[in-house]
Write a structure and sequence with these properties.
Elements: E1 26-35, H1 41-58, E2 61-67, E3 70-78, H2 79-91, E4 95-106, E5 117-120, H3 137-145, H4 150-158, H5 172-180, H6 189-201, E6 204-205, E7 208-209, H7 215-224, H8 233-241, H9 246-266, H10 272-290, E8 303-308, H11 316-327, E9 331-334, H12 340-349, E10 354-358, H13 369-382, E11 389-393, H14 395-399, H15 403-406, E12 411-413, H16 419-427
Parallel strand pairs: 2-5, 8-9, 8-10, 10-11, 11-12
Antiparallel strand pairs: 1-3, 1-4, 2-3, 6-7
Helix pairs in contact: 4-5, 5-6, 7-9, 9-10, 9-11, 10-11, 12-13
């Protein structure tokens, strides 16, 4: 039986009740939606004030982000209160196309001091109000596009790397340590440790990553191996147009598409030649999509040699890594040495802070691991830089990240947008 301090819907609540063990269990509801029309600053102010008043009366707290006609909202509080306000949120004519991203019990409130904070890109000018919160633009991008990427994005921002989007889960301890270095992100720390990490962990079984395949990606993979060379062009263009950055294109399209092609080969639905031709089409589309892309002006960023494992014919992963680093302003050199000796000569002639060495994004290549371990050892012996950082990538490391350490690499990289963070984190050790 609950004490008299328990929350009762319809009555104002005390902030102390957030920490009261006798209070009703906390639930979180996360959704995104599209605005029915562009929202002006006054529209958003009115929306924030009304939402904050409603939430205060119902014992709810949360965060709302508005960006380019899209809303992202995190609502939390007693389940009964969420059930009470949710129908009115759904009926609100100011938005539509509502997609619930998560509805789960939570160990505690992530935004316990905020009836409802609002963040938009306009706050970058410093016109923050009492109901507004200034968030980094990169975080707004990530949360609008894929909320589950927030863990890695926050961690990468904490070490000042230009990562845009990522999926790889960090441990709560590692994420908290990195985020703690940036006080302005403290308000989001509970989200990372208490909610996002458990949700990401639910996507994993054992040590192998289990990520649902987007049906559109699976269908596109089949079209790319079709006899008609133009099959899939329209769908490819449509999917490519949905993302605004090379990081998003990697995680949303190119990398999962490469894995889907590998799955088709594994199921004997295509030949290795057909798969290789399809990967060439993907790589060509990537180059067309990124031609003329703006490049960030980097200052004293590490020098990185990006190369596929000598003998590896599938070079999409290396091309994506090089493009992501180049656009972020890194000192990047892409090569495709045919032999270990040619790779050794490269690192002997030129100083590199890091080597990005990759296997196929489509095939698992487990039987190549002993060979790759030998390559890494030879490169270290030949390197002009005795502290050369070696990061490995490819499907086998995407699915079994811990294998990188077993073959002598400093880190494994599961996605091109994560590479910068991996390198910076390793260099700081």
């Amino acid at each position: 039986m609950q004490t008299s301090r328990s929350f009762q819907p319809g009555k104002p609540y005390s902030r102390e009740s957030v920490r009261d063990d006798a209070a009703p269990p906390i639930w979180s509801l996360v959704y995104h939606s599209r605005a029915a029309r562009p929202m002006s600053e006054s529209d958003l102010d009115e929306l924030q004030r009304a939402a904050a008043a409603r939430n205060h009366a119902e014992g709810l707290t949360g965060l709302m982000i508005y960006d380019e006609g899209r809303f992202f909202q995190w609502l939390e509080g007693p389940e009964a209160s969420i059930e009470k306000v949710w129908p009115s949120i759904q009926r609100d004519p100011r938005h539509g196309a509502i997609d619930v991203l998560g509805r789960n019990p939570a160990p505690l409130r992530c935004f316990g001091d905020w009836d409802m904070k609002l963040s938009t890109r306009s706050l970058r000018t410093g016109k923050a109000q009492s109901g507004a919160l200034q968030l980094p633009p990169m975080l707004i991008d990530s949360l609008s596009r894929r909320p589950h990427a927030a863990t890695e994005l926050l961690a990468s921002m904490a070490i000042k790397s230009p990562v845009v989007i990522a999926r790889e889960p960090l441990s709560a301890k590692a994420a908290a340590k990195r985020i703690a270095e940036k006080p302005q992100y403290a308000a989001l720390r509970n989200v990372v440790e208490k909610v996002l990490i458990p949700q990401l962990a639910a996507l994993h079984t054992g040590d192998k990553v289990q990520v649902p395949v987007d049906p559109r990606i699976a269908e596109l993979a089949k079209l790319l191996i079709a006899t008609d060379p133009h099959a899939g062009d329209q769908q490819f263009g449509e999917l490519q147009s949905l993302s605004r950055s090379i990081g998003a294109l990697c995680t949303d399209l190119y990398e999962p598409l490469a894995r889907s092609l590998g799955d088709l080969w594994q199921a004997d639905d295509c030949t290795e030649l057909e798969l290789t031709v399809a990967l060439c089409r993907v790589q060509s589309s990537m180059r067309n999509a990124t031609s003329g892309a703006a490049r960030t002006r980097g200052v004293h960023l590490p020098a990185v040699l990006v190369t596929p494992q000598p003998g590896e014919q599938h070079r999409l992963g290396a091309s994506l890594d090089a493009e992501v680093l180049w656009q972020a302003g890194w000192n990047t050199q892409y090569e495709a040495p045919a032999t270990d000796e040619a790779l050794e000569q490269l690192v002997a002639d030129t100083w590199f802070d890091a080597l990005d060495l990759s296997l196929s994004n489509s095939f698992r290549r487990e039987h190549w691991l002993p060979r790759m371990a030998q390559t890494i050892q030879h490169v270290r012996d030949a390197s002009r830089n005795p502290q050369l950082v070696v990061v490995v990538g490819g499907r086998v490391f995407y699915e079994h990240e811990q294998i990188g350490a077993d073959i002598g690499a400093d880190a494994s990289n599961r996605s091109a947008p994560l590479l910068a963070a991996k390198i910076m984190a390793t260099l700081k050790r």
